[in-house]
Design goal:
The complex is a heterodimer of chains A (about 400) and B (about 150). In chain A, about 40% of the residues lie in helices and about 15% in strands. Chain A is α/β, with parallel strands linked by helices. Chain A folds into two domains: about 130 residues, Aspartate Aminotransferase, domain 1; about 240 residues, Type I PLP-dependent aspartate aminotransferase-like (Major domain) (Aspartate Aminotransferase, domain 2), CATH 3.40.640.10. In chain A, the strands form five sheets. In chain A, strands 4-10-9-8-7-5-6 form a seven-stranded mixed beta sheet, sandwiched between helices. Chain A has a four-stranded antiparallel beta sheet with strand order 13-14-17-16, covered by helices on one side. A two-stranded antiparallel ribbon of chain A has the order 1-2. Chain A is globular. Chain A starts with a helix and ends in a 6-residue tail after the last helix. In chain B, strands 1-2-3 form a three-stranded antiparallel beta sheet, with helices on one face. The chains are: A alpha/beta (about 400), B alpha+beta (about 150). Chains A and B meet through helix 12 and helix 14 of A and helix 1, helix 2 and helix 6 of B. Bound molecules: pyridoxal-5'-phosphate. Pyridoxal-5'-phosphate binds next to helix 4 of chain A.
Chain lengths: ~400, ~150
């Protein structure tokens, strides 16, 4: 396992107390904390490099542009993108998926066509497809999950018989931690001619991503879930697809020549980056990638799995606790319920001990319906968590049980 | 493992009476002949309430609710329905105002016998994110009688 205590010292916020207790931050699937290296990179950028990018003819602006483009290349390398120009910076996963739906989707999906999503998808990889299908008179087909929260491969195969134009699914589920067989699903979808959109919000921070090996067509990610600032993120795509796609947002930067009544567009990726971009976000993301790479994604994945397994072992010892999702291999996400104690009540009680977890539907309402629960409590781990945090979670949960009469006070 | 007893704030929040209403809600289920009904939800935690009233001559003759959610929202709904039967609409709105004052930490409201079992919810005022839960059924009531 990683030396979490040493890593924790890099994160100023984690030194804080919460309700008089050591902060036990277990909501990393929602967003991670930021190390000083990232905070400093952003401050340094504003202190030494800030200017608008791709415009100025002076040295400062050139340095700002270089920093921005270096971040693009770094991110491309981090996920083994097809080419740096296949990396389009966005506000995050949500905007990246909306870009694909609004541009590629509108150009390729028509009346009677099918778009396939899964019951594991986050609302941000579902609602944009609903909107597209409603606009186009297309059918949205949701693939079912197995009892233990994996994509049902047989239903996936049935859905593909409709020869969908687009197949969208998450690499890693934010609600259950399921790691989907992304290369295999992509191969199957390609065999029927579909374009594959992978929601990488939860995989990029937690598993070594190799896009060229996965061979999907579009991959969306969020910086803020991997130590980088909020509002940073990207769509990573095969360049030839981006080339052929119509623009998404219109404005400055994305144009080549502007006539009174029409325009020609810039080359990729700039065609999809209208307006002044989030340069500090890109610079912070590059610093986060350096930080994560120095640790190593394989070690991070191992660390998280060990914590998730310890949490599952300890929580399932408590009478009345149900843990959802796959047994065995999973990312560091543990969703659970405890008897009839509503997850929101669990979160309030844990908060008094400084333990921060998420309670709710995790932006996966179709999944919650299939699990037959209105909500779950969710603990999610990252590099700075350790077994003490798992013990704090379990200990605090026993208190919740006492308050609700499940265990003697 | 930390096995110290729960903080007094938590014990005040999760009193027996609240858990009793949560587990054995009063007046739960659909109301035959409802004249007013309002559904509200709290998207943050998924609390849902569907409040149904039978109002005649500006008097609430009967009230029931359907809902699911946390102990605070569901207990508040159950306790509220106990109080509303045979109240006039202005009386019901006055109770809603009293309840809201108690959630703001008004101590006189927290001692007001007119609030009945709801006084057990006074501890919620110390948990700002949970106030919305406690007020959800009351917001449904206000919406219903004003519609
Ligand atoms: C699996 C998954 N997809 C998409 C998103 C949306 O990401 P963002 O809010 O950063 O756009 C999230 C995070 O909430 C997520 O966990």
């Amino acid at each position: 396992m990683l030396d979490a205590a040493r890593l924790r010292a890099d994160f100023p916020l984690l030194e804080r107390q919460e309700n008089g207790r050591r902060l036990v931050y277990l909501d990393n699937a929602a967003t991670t904390q930021k190390p000083a290296a990232v905070l400093n990179a952003i401050a340094d950028y504003y202190r030494t490099t800030n200017a608008n990018v791709h415009r100025g003819a002076y040295s400062l602006a050139i340095r700002a542009t270089e920093a921005y483009e270096a971040a693009r290349a770094k991110l491309g390398g981090f996920v083994n993108a097809w080419a740096p120009e296949g990396v389009v910076f966005t506000r995050g996963t949500t905007e990246a998926i909306n870009l694909v739906a609004g541009s590629y989707g509108r150009a390729h999906v028509g009346r009677g066509d099918t778009v396939v999503v899964t019951a594991l998808d986050h609302h941000s990889n579902l609602v944009p497809w609903q909107i597209l299908c409603q606009e186009k008179g297309a059918t949205l087909r949701m693939v079912e999950i197995t009892e233990d929260g994996r994509i049902d491969l047989s239903d996936f195969g049935t859905a593909l018989e409709r020869r969908p134009k687009i197949v969208a699914f998450p690499y890693v589920s934010n609600a259950l931690g399921t790691v989907n067989p992304t290369a295999q699903l992509t191969r199957l979808a390609h065999a029927v001619g579909a374009a594959v959109v992978v929601d990488g919000a939860q995989s990029t921070p937690h598993v070594k991503v190799d896009l060229q090996a996965l061979d999907c067509d579009f991959y969306a990610l969020s910086g803020h879930k991997m130590l980088a600032p909020m509002g940073s993120g990207a769509l990573v795509a095969k360049p030839e697809l981006l080339e052929a796609m119509p623009p998404y947002h219109g404005g400055g930067e994305m144009i080549s020549r502007v006539f009174d009544d029409h325009s020609t567009y810039n080359k990729i990726p700039h065609k999809f980056e209208a307006g002044t971009p989030n340069v500090e976000g890109a610079v912070g993301l590059a610093a986060a990638i350096d930080y994560l790479s120095a640790i190593g994604l394989e070690r991070i994945a191992e660390h998280e799995q060990a914590l998730a397994q310890a949490a599952i072992d300890q929580l399932t010892q408590i009478d009345g606790v149900t843990v959802y999702g796959p047994r065995g291999h999973r990312a560091g996400v543990v969703s659970f319920t405890y008897g009839d104690i509503h997850p929101h009540d669990i979160a309030t009680i844990l908060d008094q001990d400084g333990v921060c977890i998420r309670a709710g539907h995790h932006c996966t309402q179709p999944l919650m319906r299939r699990l037959n629960v209105p909500a779950t409590a969710r603990a999610s781990f990252y590099i700075y968590n350790d077994l003490d945090d798992v013990a704090a979670l379990a200990g605090s949960l026993v208190k919740a049980g006492a308050l609700f009469g499940y265990v003697p006070a | 493992m930390d096995t110290s007893p729960p903080e007094p704030r938590l014990s005040a929040l999760y009193q027996e009476l609240i858990l009793d209403h949560y587990r054995r809600p009063r007046n739960k289920g659909a109301l035959e002949g409802a004249t007013h009904s309002v559904s509200l939800n709290n998207p943050l935690c998924g609390d849902e309430i569907d409040l149904q009233l039978r109002v005649a001559d500006a008097v609430i003759r009967d009230v029931r609710f359907i809902g699911r959610g946390c102990s605070i929202s569901q207990a508040s709904a159950s306790m509220m329905t106990q109080l509303l039967k045979d109240r006039t609409v202005p009386q019901a709105l006055a109770l809603a105002a009293r309840m809201s004052a108690m959630m703001q930490g008004d101590e006189s409201a927290a001692k007001d016998k007119a609030l009945g079992d709801l006084r057990a919810l006074a501890g919620v005022s110390k948990f700002p994110v949970r106030i919305k839960c406690a007020l959800l059924p009351w917001n449904a009531l206000t919406d219903a009688v004003k519609s």
